[in-house]
Amino acid sequence: MNAVGSGDTTARADRDATGGVPVRRLTVLYDADCSLCTFVRGWLERQPQLVPLALVPAGSERARGLFPTLDHSATLDDITVVGDSGQVYRGTGAWVVVLWALREHRPLAHRFATPAGARLAKGAVLAAAKWRGNQWGTAKGGRQVYRRADGWSYDPSFGWTHGTPGCDSGACSTG
User: Fold this and answer.
1) C-alpha distance from residue 164 to each of 35, 88, 167 (Å)
2) What H or E segment, with its residue span, contains residue 82?
3) Which of 34, 66, 89, 141 has a CA-to-CA distance to 74 between 20 and 30 Å?
4) What is residue 12's DSSP assignment?
């Protein structure tokens, strides 16, 4: 009997897709303040995984500790996936590698890795980005600001602030 994977061309093709470095674990950095992102996180947690996925909030202390050299502000703008050997995937490539890690969706990942499939995958990523973009508003000076329904907003120039009406003095509770 052959050893597991000894004649498996699919496994060999998957290994070759990562530059010859086997991927044993992926860390998905997701925006914990985005309802779409947290929905997808929950969906990923329920999927059978061929490659284990660690789901970590982007920009969190945990993410900064795990990947100190990564541009963490960029991880809030675009899905970022980090392989256990330091591979970094962003945008469409990140979605494809996440699908590749899922047992029931690996064939779809292979289709998305083709030129025709890549256009379709990019369209899906752009649609999600457009939806997320609708969650952003504009601050004074034309800067993009992410606003949450609970009164918190994120301005890349100033960080997180709470903007409850009538609380300009800073005396209001945010707890």
Assistant:
1) 21, 38, 6
2) strand 80-83
3) 141
4) H
Sole residue written with tokens 């457009």: 130
Q: What is the DSSP string of 29-81?
A: EE-TT-HHHHHHHHHHHHS-BSS-EEEEETTSHHHHHH-TTS-HHHHHHS-EE
Q: If phi over 0 gives left and psi between -120 and 50 gives alpha, with beta otherwise, what is residue 19?
A: left
Question: How many residues make up the chain in this entry?
Answer: 175
Residue range 120-147, pLDDT digits in tens: 666 666 555 565 555 555 555 555 666 6
Three-state secondary structure call for residue 26: strand
DSSP 94-110: HHHHHHHHBGGGHHHHH
Rg (CA), the chain: 19
At residue 46, the pLDDT reads: 93
Question: CA angle at residue 144 from 140 to 147, to 5 degrees?
Answer: 95
The structure's pTM equals 0.62
Q: How far apart are the first and last CA of the chain?
A: 62
